[in-house]
Design goal:
Length: about 130
């Protein structure tokens, strides 16, 4: 008799349960993929936005250095130096006794979560030579 042996009944239930889990596990990989995929997409998007912000930071620094060189070469012509910076770049110039301090601000396309800053800055100093005024 099957019902009189408790260990046999438990073993039989365990075998049936194991068979059920083996035959009804088709959607587990799909469910795990559906949970992991959005996290991977968000991380990839943040990586791309961060890379873009780094590139804009380098470009902004290069523009600041170019404007500082222009100020030294053009003997302090701020309007011409600002024109060389290009559109979309805010240029601030502070002239001191023998040098020009240039600060540029460049806009960055911000990510949807606003983790990346909306703008970056570049700084440069142009020093006048001894023969210049």
């Amino acid at each position: 008799m099957r019902g009189t042996n408790g260990a046999g009944a438990v073993r039989h239930m365990a075998q049936r349960l194991g068979h059920w889990f083996r035959t009804h596990d088709e959607g587990a990989a799909t469910a795990e993929f559906a949970v992991v995929l959005p996290a991977v997409v968000v991380m990839l998007a943040l990586l791309l936005y961060t890379a873009r912000a780094c590139v804009v930071q380098l470009e902004c620094q290069d523009v600041a250095a170019a404007v500082a060189r222009q100020l030294v070469a053009l003997d302090g012509d701020v309007a011409a130096a600002r024109a060389s910076a290009g559109a979309g770049v805010h240029v601030a110039v502070a002239g001191e006794a023998n040098r020009y301090v240039v600060t540029t601000t460049c806009r960055v396309v911000s990510d949807p979560l606003h983790v990346i800053p909306g703008s970056v800055r570049g700084n440069a100093v142009g020093v006048k030579q001894d023969g210049q005024a």
